[in-house]
Design brief:
255 residues, TIM Barrel, 48% helix, binds pyridoxine-5'-phosphate, PyrdxlP_synth_PdxJ, Aldolase_TIM, EC 2.6.99.2, Pyridoxine 5'-phosphate synthase
């Protein structure tokens, strides 16, 4: 492929807020992190306003929207409260995710097959307001087909299972998850969906997934914030960008 589609890097700043909230004050500020990440090459900023406000708070979303020059991706559950906040904030995009209070992070994808009746009005209201809606789902054919039927313009493939299998040394599971992601990305693209991916990605997994031409955006947070503690956020963003570029250069050669 002579002109590979650009692969965007969305930097998730949730865990700057996690650290700030450990002391309940104003530092470190996720808005400062967002500005620094953009200066270092991030194509967008992602933040998840959870129901329990454990990291990002309402005023963070408003401040991010006001301060950043790149697209803001507002991750949220498809609840009435969150839809209302998103409509008031007017981010570039909303990524709808499942949410349970007791989970440590977003553990699985949205069940769009089981919840299509509940999701359809949220997708429609956000879309009518000019907000690009993405659905965070597993690379499962039934979920992908339902996402297309619901006319969501974008899906984000949940890469957490694949990344965990690699970390835990389960090679067979990692290979099966990878095949599912490759097939899911192809199916989604052929159904007219824009395809993103995220959750649990590090330099190695981001480089590998960058070789899938259907995927045009990666959203990455936790690993990058951990690295940033040691080498700085700007250096981490540059290193992630370089890993993604190396992977993109192998476009179409991913096995
Ligand atoms: N994409 C979505 C939809 C997420 O919920 C998360 C976690 O907030 C991420 C990407 C980023 O995952 P991680 O922090 O593991 O990189």
């Amino acid at each position: 492929m002579s002109h590979p589609p650009k692969l965007r890097l969305g930097v998730n700043v949730d865990h700057i807020a996690t650290l700030r909230n450990a002391r309940g004050g104003r530092i470190p500020d996720p808005v400062r992190a967002a500005l620094l990440a953009i200066e270092a090459g991030a194509d967008g900023i992602t933040a998840h306003l959870r129901e329990d406000r454990r990291h990002i708070r309402d005023d963070d979303m408003a401040r991010l929207k006001a301060a950043i020059s790149k697209p803001l991706n507002f991750e949220m559950a498809a609840t009435e409260e969150m839809v209302r906040i998103a409509l008031a904030t007017r981010p570039h995009a909303c990524c709808l995710v499942p949410e349970r209070r007791e989970e440590l992070t977003t553990e699985g994808g949205l069940d769009v097959v089981g919840q299509h009746n509940a999701l359809a009005p949220a997708i429609a209201r956000l879309g009518e307001a000019g907000i690009r809606v993405s659905l965070f789902i597993a690379a499962d054919p039934a979920q992908i087909e339902m996402a297309a039927r619901l006319r969501a313009p974008v899906i984000e493939i949940h890469t957490g299972g694949w990344c965990d299998a690699i970390t835990e040394g389960h090679a067979d599971k990692a290979a099966a998850e990878w095949e599912r992601i490759v097939a899911g990305a192809r199916l989604a693209r052929s159904a007219g969906l824009e395809v993103h991916a995220g959750h649990g990605l590090d330099y190695a997994t981001a480089e590998r997934i960058a070789a899938l031409p259907e995927i045009v955006e990666l959203n990455i947070g936790y690993f990058m914030m951990g690295e940033a503690l040691f080498v700085g956020l700007a250096e981490t963003v540059r290193a992630m960008r370089a890993a993604m570029d190396r992977g993109r250069a192998r476009l179409g050669t991913a096995a």
